[in-house]
Automatic annotation (TrEMBL):
It is found in: Cell membrane; Secreted, Extracellular space. Belongs to the ENOX family. It comes from the Eukaryota. Residues 307-341, 426-490 form a coiled coil. Gene3D superfamilies: 3.30.70.330. One of its GO terms (molecular function) is RNA binding. CDD domains: RRM_ENOX. Its cofactor is Cu cation. It comes from Macaca mulatta (Rhesus macaque). GO terms for biological process: ultradian rhythm. This is Ecto-NOX disulfide-thiol exchanger 1.
Length: 588
């Protein structure tokens, strides 16, 4: 029987004891009790009696154990109420019943609860105690060390408890009440560390061999570290591959490979040089061959023909440039016309705003409408002025270009253009003469090679054919020599004609004759010569409109009367004009 006063005479009930203890454990897990009232661990046998007293249940005594004192229980609470009605007694101090205000919430990071398993029960440690310590987590840790296991704990029980944290790949149990558990993933280790500090009890037994305080900590395993290293290496490879792809994407494309020189490749390259679409690629190959030093006596003629083909594209490029310039001029003209049309429309819009601001129409608008019209008018006038300035700038540029063109059309410019045309013709004839000389040198080289081969070989039919070739080459050489002589004579005649034309160009006006006389007198007085600025300053006193450029062009047209000399050294270097007309008379 049970003593209503809670005394020490308690009847033992071996069959009902486990059920009562389980009910007490459920009550502790579901009802919030102030943990400050408990002065002992929940795993101590006396704690069960204390918990049942606080719940209003008559505590069932355990053999050889003293019941807790009434000072621990709720004061003034009669525990005999449950025996009268047969229902679960109610503690009036439980928060939420309205008898007393609920206690203020305590700031607890994690509230651990009792964990029930099929074969065992896990009781949390006293929250007033410090949390269990752990070592530093190894990289890639998937294995935990579990110490403090009950002596009678089997591998199946450990599997049952820790498989709630995740998939277990291996359990290595020792005879000294500890084991190592390896999980499938790293995050499962954090769940297992949560169980550190729990007291594990097998079934309802109170034997020391069936209970133990768990200590779960990180374990350093070679398999975990090896897998972590493999993952790191794989990530490093992926990062290197990603960086390489990024570098390859940003790297400029490599130039095409240049083939080695051969007669066959040279013939193909000569054809490509004649094609406009393949010229840029072919000229790169030709430049590489020349820089490599592929030019020799045997291949000089072939390289010259390729260089000549490259030179033939100059005219095409100049025509393309002229075409693009014409397109640019047309685009400028179209832009100017469009800008003129836009400016006209702006003028019309501004005229509309000005008409709206007159008194006839302005008085009929409201205050807000007048404000908006005034703002729009100012904005339109600003835009119109900007467009007008832009159009005026374009027109000023055109006027400057036209003035430059007029300067180019002056007589001195025309004479310079004629002289440049004659010089270009003479340069072209000289180039052709040089090309013929180079061909002649190439033929001479071939003749020398044939002579050497002829001396080394015996007199056979091949020698006869080589003699014929030699004769043919000599005849061609003679023909080339004649052509060179003809071209040389033509060049000399042309130079004479040019000199005659220059001599025949007399003074075009009386003003020029007067200028020549004044300049001759001035330079005769200055036997050491005078620079063009000094001459211009003197002549400007007589004619304010004359320029230094006109004086210099006039002096250049008469090389037998005036000559230009350099005097001084370094920073004092100066160009001076001298009168040489008397020297020319003495020499003639």
């Amino acid at each position: 029987m049970v003593d209503a006063g809670g005394g020490e005479n308690i009847t033992q009930l071996p069959q009902e004891l486990p059920q009562m203890m389980a009910a007490a454990a459920d009550g502790l897990g579901s009802i919030a009790i102030d943990t400050t009232q408990l002065n002992m661990s929940v795993t101590d046998p006396t704690a069960w009696a204390t918990a049942m007293n606080n719940l209003g249940m008559v505590p069932v005594g355990l053999p050889g154990q003293q019941l807790v004192s009434d000072s621990i229980c709720v004061p003034g609470f009669d525990p005999s109420l449950n025996m009268m009605t047969g229902i679960t007694p109610i503690n009036p101090m439980i928060p939420g019943l309205g008898l007393v205000p609920p206690p203020p919430p305590t700031e607890v990071a994690v509230v651990k609860e009792i964990i029930h398993c099929k074969s065992c029960t896990l009781f949390p440690q006293n929250p007033n105690l410090p949390p269990p310590s752990t070592r530093e987590r190894p990289p890639g840790c998937k294995t935990v060390f579990v110490g403090g296991l009950p002596e009678n704990a089997t591998e199946e029980i450990i599997q049952e408890v820790f498989e709630q944290c995740g998939d277990i790949t291996a359990i290595r149990k020792s005879k000294k009440n500890f084991c190592h558990i390896r999980f499938a993933e790293e995050f499962m280790v954090d769940k297992a560390i949560y169980l550190s500090g729990y007291r594990m009890r097998l079934g309802s037994s109170t034997d020391k061999k069936d209970s133990g305080r768990l200590h779960v900590d990180f374990a350093q395993a070679r398999d975990d570290f090896y897998e972590w290293e493999c993952k790191q290496r794989m990530r490093a490879r992926e990062e290197r591959h990603r960086r390489k792809l990024e570098e390859d994407r940003l790297r400029p494309p490599s130039p095409p490979a240049i083939m080695h020189y051969s007669e066959h490749e040279a013939a193909l390259l000569a054809e490509k040089l004649k094609d406009d679409s393949k010229f840029s690629e072919a000229i790169t190959v030709l430049l590489s061959w020349i820089e490599r030093g592929e030019v020799n006596r045997r291949s000089a003629n072939q390289f010259y023909s390729m260089v000549q083909s490259a030179n033939s594209h100059v005219r095409r490029l100049m025509n393309e440039k002229a075409t693009h310039e014409q397109e640019m001029e047309e685009a400028k003209e179209n832009f100017k016309n469009a800008l003129t049309g836009i400016l006209t429309q702006f003028e019309q819009i501004v005229a509309v705003f000005n008409a709206s601001t007159r008194q006839k129409a302005w008085d009929h608008f409201s205050k807000a409408q007048r404000k908006n019209i005034d703002i729009w008018r100012k904005h339109s006038e600003e835009l119109r002025n900007a467009q007008s300035e832009q159009l005026m700038g374009i027109r000023r540029e055109e006027e400057m270009e036209m003035s430059d063109d007029e300067n180019c059309d002056s007589p001195t410019k025309k004479m310079r253009v004629d002289e440049s045309a004659l010089a270009a013709q003479a340069y072209a004839l000289k180039e052709e003469n040089d090309s013929l000389r180079w061909q002649l040198d190439a033929y001479r080289n071939e003749v020398e090679l044939l002579k050497q081969e002829k001396e080394q070989l015996f007199r056979t039919e091949e020698n006869l054919t080589k003699d014929q070739q030699l004769q043919f080459l000599q005849q061609t050489m003679q023909g080339m020599q004649q052509e060179i002589n003809v071209l040389t004579v033509a060049l000399v005649n042309q130079d004479r004609e040019n000199n005659i034309e220059k001599r025949s160009q007399g003074l075009k006006s009386e003003k020029e004759a007067l200028l020549i006389g004044i300049i001759s007198t001035f330079l005769h007085v200055h036997p050491f010569g005078a620079n063009i600025e000094y001459l211009w300053s003197y002549m400007q006193q007589l004619d304010s409109k004359i320029s230094a450029n006109e004086i210099e062009m006039l002096l250049m047209r008469l090389p037998r009367m005036f000559k230009q000399e350099f005097t001084g050294v370094g920073a004092t270097l100066e160009k001076r004009w001298k009168l040489c007309a008397f020297e020319g008379i003495k020499t003639t």
